[in-house]
Amino acid sequence: MHITMIGGGYVGLVSGACLAAFGTEVTVIEHDPARLDRLEAGDIPLYEPGLDELIARQRQAGRLAFSDDLASALQKSRAVFIAVGTPTRRGSGHADLSYVYAAARAIAAHAPDNLLIVTKSTVPVGTGRQVAAIVRQARPDLTFHIASNPEFLREGHAITDFIQPDRVIIGLEETTDASSPARTLLETLYAPLNGPESRLIFMGLESAELTKYAANAFLAMKVTFANEMADLCEATGGQITDVTRGMGLDPRIGPHFLTPGPGYGGSCFPKDTQALATSARLAGTPTQLVETTIAANEARKRRLAERILTLAGGSITDCTIAVLGLTFKAHTDDMRQAPSLTILPLLHEAGAALRVYDPQGMDTARCLLPDGILYADSPLHAAEGADMLLVLTEWPDFAALTPTRLAAHMKGRRILDCRQIWQAEDWQKAGFDYHCLGIGP
Ligand code: UGA
User: Fold this and answer.
1) What is the pLDDT of residues 55-70, one digit of tens each?
2) Is 268 annotated in the active site?
3) β-strands 388-391, 414-417 pairing
4) Is residue 212 included in any domain, yes or no?
5) Which of 397, 438, 440, 437 is nearest to 415 (CA)?
6) Ligand 1 center from residue 303 Cα (angstroms)
7) Overall number of domains in the chain
8) The domain that contains 144 carries what CATH number?
């Protein structure tokens, strides 16, 4: 079977390569000529552990190809997946669907009969039916099917998440017909995932679209709740690690997404919470919890900068701060909505000299952070002569640093660890003024 994946971005590349690994022939359509050249040259334009090797293997096996020729790819395809970006529209919380609708129009122009059109991009409820309406209007005589198949993979773990998913959500127009062409085709594509129990969950189009937003918003709320409990622990003498362990052992709560941090970021939680809140407001059923989560997360990043100022005794003019981690979390090069983009400009403005290091995000960070920041070659180079050290992401390389090694490079002894990567006692014993989130006095 052959399928077309429109979009050589994060979701398109990972899904295309993984579906190829399941045995399907996949053409990934990429319209940006520079990006297409890079993909064809085997130079994968994003960092995701294992992705370049997987793509190379699938191309070698003849199951994965890159192209800008949608018409030819569609002629041999049974299904086309739309995996284009849905960024936040400027000045509103709405998802910008212009790429999705452009893909729908392009599909309509070249679709063969009986094509299955699957939305993989994260799209607001109602978009799947809108895609169908666009195709129907352009080609009233075409027979086609539509489905929604949102993606739940995490950056940094994308391949494992795709090939060992908790569930694959599939929204269909017709949910009662167990042998509908759309359902049968998707069952075939995902067949390698099925063990004794199927991972495929079928539902209506609207439910599938809403499930994606609801899952991301719920996880964002969970992280935000843990962040608020961490603040309360600090104020009252509790230990957040004990509290979240105690909570998380209750299977109704679960242990995941309860680690406090500098605020959630990335290309998904901020955009998807905004889009969900906007859809809900438009539908006349505002999601107050989601709206409060968005506001609390924004405020958290700014408060962290204030906290650093307080730790430094009220002024950071002439204070050198080493920063480990710039991306929105570890194991990615993604700077989108990273807490560092709010926190570091505030510290810079307040007069601190910043020495920063990130294993993957520095090239992008240079374009986004203010001038005058020193980009170090290693964590220890960043720490050289620093009065204070700030940990913003949880890379294992940072966790491997010891008090002795850092003491040999830092001038001061103050640390704010926003990811609980170290044990407080180790640092306190070594004479550091060590602070981390959620540990009370
Ligand atoms: C998230 C979801 O986890 C995926 O299921 C979803 O498919 C994806 O968005 C998407 O919609 O494409 P991702 O953005 O890669 O994945 O990142 P996460 O690992 O979920 O982390 C999101 C943010 O929450 C990060 O800033 C992270 O540092 C923060 N976080 C996460 C915490 O602060 N504490 C936690 O305990 C967990």
Assistant:
1) 999 999 999 999 999 9
2) yes
3) parallel
4) no
5) 437
6) 21
7) 2
8) 3.40.50.720
